Amino acid sequence: MNKPLVIWDAGHGGSDTGAHAFGTKEKDWTLEAALYLHNRSKELGIPTHIVREKDITLEALPRTTIVKNSGATFCISCHFNAFNSQAKGVETIYSIFKGSHDSKGLAEKIAYAISNEGMDFRRVFSRQGTNDFDYYYMHRMTGKVETVIVEFGFIDNEGDYDKLRFKEFRIKLYEATLRAFCEHTGNLYQLPNSSIDVLDEYYKVQIFAGSLSGAEKVAQEAENKGFETFIVKEKK
């Protein structure tokens, strides 16, 4: 394999679900993000690699070994946040050590690009751990690969989730990430070859309200026809 410019990391996976709220598991959306960004990078002719392509468990050492051995210049580690249901917005995290390719600048570009697509801007930061090392193992254990952790939003925050639950909106955030990456690295960015319906406004369609068993039956019928569904519990 030729050395990639970037390796995309889908955070968590397998037995490690990551954050979870409103029936959503972080590991599923991170895999969606990394696969999308990897495939779009190939479409743009950017040398690219990916840490995992399916739902498998990867502990810290094997995950970071894949990144380190890839020979990539950059790693973008995809995540969705959770805290106390009150925090919201996009965060990006860079190493405490100054890299030769300005990973702080890349983290800033990505965060602002995602914010411009409709997510609140929360912060861009680094975090020091013990013994003057990085706090996050994705920074600490990936060798010379300059890693930026991207937290697209908080899935346990109702406001963030109301946006993120729409795949079209998540795609906008992935595209913003790729566009910022291309700007930072000097690669040509172009819109996807395939048409993606990206909307500025979203509307809800409710087709059932009743018992849990009834909701599950209707949801399954809708999913069998290709629709994404979710079940919300509300007070009468």
TrEMBL record:
Q: Which GO terms describe its molecular function?
A: N-acetylmuramoyl-L-alanine amidase activity
Write the lineage as a comma-separated list. Bacteria, Bacillati, Bacillota, Bacilli, Bacillales
Q: What is this protein called?
A: N-acetylmuramoyl-L-alanine amidase
Which keywords belong to this entry? Answer: Hydrolase
Keyword presence, Hydrolase = yes
Question: What's the source species for this entry?
Answer: Chengkuizengella axinellae
Q: Which SMART domains match?
A: Ami_3
**Domain MurNAc-LAA residue range list:** 64-182
Gene3D superfamilies hit by this protein: Zn-dependent exopeptidases
- EC number(s) stated in the UniProt entry for this protein: 3.5.1.28
In terms of CDD domains, this protein maps to: MurNAc-LAA
